[in-house]
């Protein structure tokens, strides 16, 4: 910061401080003294709240006990009720003064008697013990969370974006300067230049972690992630009757401001082979009715974006359903647990859902109608609601979150027609706000596919103010009331999808249903057809490397759970070693005896 002096008259000298463009310092005054912190004009009041609680007040006060005031006579607004407005929108500028009205500090552990003459020593020991306790308590809530392996792997990477040398560089080939030094994975200029709407989740995590947790200092760790919570808090400390008999500023949820989510948990959906989608489409080709299925696969790093993640789909399982020309109704699925267990034996997990929305255009050329586009919708309000349900059902475990989970890796893929009448797959997720709105029972689908309804308040449901922000025709950001309905686009997160250049799928066959010869046979005939698949030459050709076949054999309840993994490994890779390992299993020999007895 550079001082510049300007003379105002012969008796005074006005000192004006200039600061780098885009940054500003805000001062804070409380009964504890003066402090200041650095912000960006685009930072939200939530960022300011975190800085006040953790950096200025050193985590000694709760959000409910601290109020921000314009002047010393103002009662102010509790930190727990701050909305998502930016500092620029609230009128705060470089050098602004904010007064902090403090309530009671956090309760400290009861002290123990101190022997005479040991007061100073005891005070130091208690301070160290309190610091250690604070560090341990903040870490205990997160370190016990078992994250996915992909998250642990991405956290080990720095994600720096390399840059080539430029004409402005004045150093040798082994040197580095500001023009060619690597960029952070969350660099804003890089996102603008590459038109990135959503940064990867781990880039976002590094960004907020660097702002909240200063590793160079001795401060305790603070979980930087917090999922939105839109319900009335239970057991309010104010002592009033619970909702709907009573409510106060400490237990009521803050105003909900919907913006475009700056990150996405999963960046890309990759189908291991085009045959997976092609097989799933066969039912629609035969009947003209829509189909729905669960995608099973695994997660891998996605190197196209910094610290990116992709969901690799290896197979699609079609659960019990009633198909119609204009939709699908899911039925009760009693074997859900078994299917997930068999998938786990194959090294897979449920990563998402996929469904068709196809209508032939009647030209007899194989083209379909384009229903989803910028002038209609991409996901209907009902589909967004269903995606919110699934993402709430499959939370993403994360050690950086205060609750032990943050968002979801569950993805939604839709097969529909594009503007050229071609069949294509598009993939989406919904935002964390959408999932939290669903959990709080605040939204419901409408007959207009592009609009989501906000439910009315009643005795069982408190509905806070819900706003959404958009850019008007003059290029200004405008906030608008979301009641009674708002565009579903504010809840969408768009992903990319595609196929690998060199497919190497896990399964040799990609049927989503059983072969006709097996599906239509009686019990004895089905066993006879299965026995043929165990012929040595057939196994080497991949007869068992098919998820519906592996699942059918598991449904016979002959193979033990411990032996299913060995069988799946042999089915997908019928090597001599895997065969020898499987033949040593007693339950597998029983399975062979049952199958061969039907011949």
Automatic annotation (TrEMBL):
It comes from Schizosaccharomyces cryophilus (strain OY26 / ATCC MYA-4695 / CBS 11777 / NBRC 106824 / NRRL Y48691). Keywords: mRNA transport, Protein transport, Translocation, Transport. Involved in the import of nuclear-targeted proteins into the nucleus and the export of poly(A) RNA out of the nucleus. Has a role in the endoplasmic reticulum-associated degradation (ERAD) pathway. PROSITE patterns: MPN (PS50249). It comes from the Eukaryota. Belongs to the NPL4 family. Residues 269-406 form the MPN domain. This is Nuclear protein localization protein 4. It is found in: Cytoplasm, Perinuclear region; Nucleus membrane. Its main location: cytoplasm. One of its GO terms (cellular component) is nuclear membrane. GO terms for molecular function: ubiquitin binding; ubiquitin protein ligase binding. PANTHER family: NUCLEAR PROTEIN LOCALIZATION 4, NUCLEAR PROTEIN LOCALIZATION PROTEIN 4 HOMOLOG. It is a peripheral membrane protein. One of its GO terms (biological process) is protein transport.
């Amino acid at each position: 910061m550079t001082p510049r002096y300007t003379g105002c008259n012969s008796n005074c000298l006005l000192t004006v401080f200039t600061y780098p463009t885009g940054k500003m310092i805000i001062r804070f005054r409380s009964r504890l003294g003066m402090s200041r912190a650095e912000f960006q004009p685009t930072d939200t009041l939530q960022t300011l709240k975190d800085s006040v609680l953790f950096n200025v007040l050193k985590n000694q006060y709760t959000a409910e006990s601290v109020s921000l005031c314009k002047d010393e006579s103002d009662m102010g607004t509790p930190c727990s009720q701050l909305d998502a407005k930016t500092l620029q929108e609230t009128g705060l500028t470089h050098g602004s003064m904010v007064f902090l009205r403090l309530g009671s500090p956090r309760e400290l552990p009861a002290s123990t008697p101190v022997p005479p003459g040991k007061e100073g020593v005891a005070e130091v020991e208690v301070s160290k013990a309190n610091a250690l306790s604070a560090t341990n308590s903040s870490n205990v809530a997160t370190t016990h969370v078992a994250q996915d392996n992909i998250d642990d792997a991405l956290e080990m990477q720095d994600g720096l974006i390399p840059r080539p040398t430029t004409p402005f560089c004045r150093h040798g080939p082994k040197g580095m300067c500001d023009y060619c030094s690597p960029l952070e994975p969350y660099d804003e200029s890089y996102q603008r230049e590459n038109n990135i709407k959503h940064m990867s989740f781990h880039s976002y995590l590094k960004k907020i972690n660097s702002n909240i947790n200063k590793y160079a200092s001795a401060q305790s760790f603070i979980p930087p992630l917090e999922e939105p919570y839109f319900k009335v808090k239970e057991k309010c400390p104010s002592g009033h009757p619970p909702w709907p008999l009573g409510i106060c500023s400490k237990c009521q949820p803050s105003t909900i401001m919907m913006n475009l989510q700056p990150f996405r948990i999963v960046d890309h959906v990759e189908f291991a082979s085009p045959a997976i989608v092609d097989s799933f489409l066969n039912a629609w080709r035969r009947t003209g009715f829509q189909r729905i299925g669960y995608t099973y696969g695994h997660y891998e790093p996605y190197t196209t974006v910094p610290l990116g993640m992709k969901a690799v789909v290896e197979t699609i399982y079609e659960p019990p359903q009633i198909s119609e020309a204009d939709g699908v109704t899911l039925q009760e699925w009693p074997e859900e647990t078994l299917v997930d267990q068999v998938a786990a034996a194959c090294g897979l997990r449920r990563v998402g859902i996929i469904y068709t929305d196809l209508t032939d255009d009647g030209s007899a050329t194989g083209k379909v109608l384009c229903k989803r586009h910028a002038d209609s919708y991409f996901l209907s309000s009902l589909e967004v609601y269903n995606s919110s349900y699934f993402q709430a059902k499959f939370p993403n475990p994360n050690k950086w979150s205060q609750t032990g989970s943050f968002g979801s890796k569950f993805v939604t893929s839709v097969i529909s027609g594009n503007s050229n009448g071609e069949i294509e797959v598009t993939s989406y997720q919904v935002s964390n706000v959408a999932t939290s709105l669903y959990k709080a029972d605040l939204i419901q689908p409408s007959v207009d596919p592009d609009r989501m309804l906000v439910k009315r308040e009643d005795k069982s449901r408190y509905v806070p103010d819900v706003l959404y922000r958009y850019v008007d025709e003059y290029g200004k950001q405008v906030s608008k009331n979301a009641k009674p309905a708002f565009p579903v686009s504010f809840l969408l997160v768009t992903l990319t999808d595609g196929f690998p250049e060199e497919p190497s799928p896990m399964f040799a066959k990609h049927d989503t249903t059983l072969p006709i010869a097996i599906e239509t046979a009686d019990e004895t005939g089905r066993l006879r057809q299965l026995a043929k698949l165990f012929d040595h030459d057939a196994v080497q050709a991949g007869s068992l490397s098919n998820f519906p076949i592996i699942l059918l054999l598991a449904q016979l309840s002959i193979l033990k759970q411990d032996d299913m993994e060995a069988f799946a490994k042999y089915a997908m890779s019928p090597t001599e070693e895997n065969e020898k390992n499987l033949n040593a299993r007693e339950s597998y020999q029983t399975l062979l005896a049952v199958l061969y007895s039907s011949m």
